[in-house]
Amino acid sequence: MLERYLIEHCSPTLASIKTANLFNMPYDSWEGLESQIESLTQQFAEKGISLSVVRKREGTALIYVYRRQKLKEDLARPGVAGFLEGCGYTDIDVDRAIKRLRMRLEKGEDFPHEIGLFLGYPLGDVRGFIENAGKNSKCAGCWKVYCNECETMKLFKKFRKCREIYLRLWQQGRPVRELAVAA
User: Fold this and answer.
1) CA nearest 77: which of 34, 116, 123, 39?
2) What is the DSSP letter of 17?
3) What gap in Å lies between CA 63 and CA 57, rounded to an integer?
4) Distance in angstroms (rounded) separating the CA atoms of residues 4 and 179
5) Could you tell me the sign of the dihedral formed by the alpha carbons of 20, 131, 79, 105, in that order?
6) Which of 3, 78, 111, 172 could pair with 176 in a Cys bridge, judged by C-beta atoms 3.0 to 4.6 Å apart?
7) Cβ(94)–Cβ(75) under 8 Å?
8) Burial letters 2-35, b for 16+ CB under 10 A, else e
9) How far apart are CA 89 and CA 76, in angstroms?
10) How distant is the alpha carbon of residue 140 from its chain centre?
11) Which residues, 6 or more positions from 99, have their beta carbon under 8 angstroms from its beta carbon?
């Protein structure tokens, strides 16, 4: 079941056209899910893909699937470190930043909107979402868009096409580890 969720929710990350994806995974056995995550983490390591549980609740886990190098580059973009500092991040090292995000997800009642930066969203769109309380976007797809509408709509279309292709290939028997490309 975890493979299906990866295909449905993370194809653009597996294809290396998006930094990261996030999804809720229901589970009956935490140990069983943890074992599946460990196995996939080992299979994807050589391709530069990491899986991390960033929040665990009774019967559901929020799983973050990301490309470490792309995330490192995204966190180094102009303005991102300062923005994250304003959200309580003292370091933009990938591991420490994810640890801080995990802490915010675990203890917070509200979803931390800076998570968009960890998913590869443009800083302008993350800021726009926060400043407008999620309203007044120019358009919406994988996220609400406040800047570069035309460019982002093309990107959303690319993500949808990728998901369709990956789902079809997976349904035809191609294993998810083969669908993941090296970056």
Assistant:
1) 123
2) S
3) 11
4) 12
5) negative
6) 3
7) yes
8) beebbbebbbbbbbbbbbbbbeebebeeeeebee
9) 13
10) 17
11) none
Q: Which residue bears the tokens 């930066």?
A: 117
Q: How confident is the model at residue 110 (pLDDT cuts 50, 70, 90)?
A: confident
- Which residue has 């493979």 as its token pair? 3
Provide DSSP, 77-105: STTHHHHHHHTT-S---HHHHHHHHHHHH
First-to-final CA distance of the chain: 25
Radius of gyration, alpha carbons of the chain: 16
Unique residue bearing structure tokens 């997976």: 170
Residue 107 pLDDT more than 90? no
Q: Report the interhelical angle of 30-45 vs 2-14 (nearest 10°).
A: 30
Residue type, 165: I
For the stretch 76-93, pLDDT in tens is: 999 999 999 999 999 999
